[in-house]
Design brief:
about 120 residues; single chain; alpha/beta; 8 strands; three-stranded antiparallel β-sheet; 3 helices; five-stranded mixed β-sheet; NDUFAF3/AAMDC
Length: about 120
């Protein structure tokens, strides 16, 4: 299965190929996507994205995970999260969300098994 294209991004709204849903924050992986509900793991802007937030995507057999920190990069990504992924042999890219979506789509277009977690507001 290939990684679905992120079809559109604007403040507070993301659309992913293959889904009729409009996401605020989302998780994407080869063959699927879903809402990223921060309440599931108690995530807040600081300390930010926790290993528990990326675990589901990492378990989908991805080579690379792209983390979108928000339009103004308000969402932090602690070293422990990056280390968690790197220890599994997963390449990690942490970027401002617009740049993250471009990077994710470019990797997906090349056939890379890429996943991501994206915050579409601040």
């Amino acid at each position: 299965m290939s990684s679905p294209e992120i079809a559109s991004l604007s403040w507070g709204q993301m659309k992913v190929q293959g889904s009729t849903k409009t996401y605020k924050d989302c998780k994407v992986w080869p063959g699927g996507s879903r809402d990223w509900d921060w309440r599931e793991t108690g995530t807040e802007h600081s300390p930010g994205v926790q290993p528990a937030d990326v675990k589901e995507v990492a378990e989908k057999g991805v080579q690379t995970i792209v983390i979108g920190r928000g339009m103004s990069e308000a969402l932090k990504v602690p070293p422990s999260t990056v280390e968690y992924l790197e220890k599994q042999g997963i390449d990690v890219r942490v970027l401002q969300t617009e740049r993250a979506v471009k990077e994710y789509n470019a990797l997906a277009a090349k056939g890379v098994r890429v996943g991501g977690v994206f915050h579409s507001t601040c």
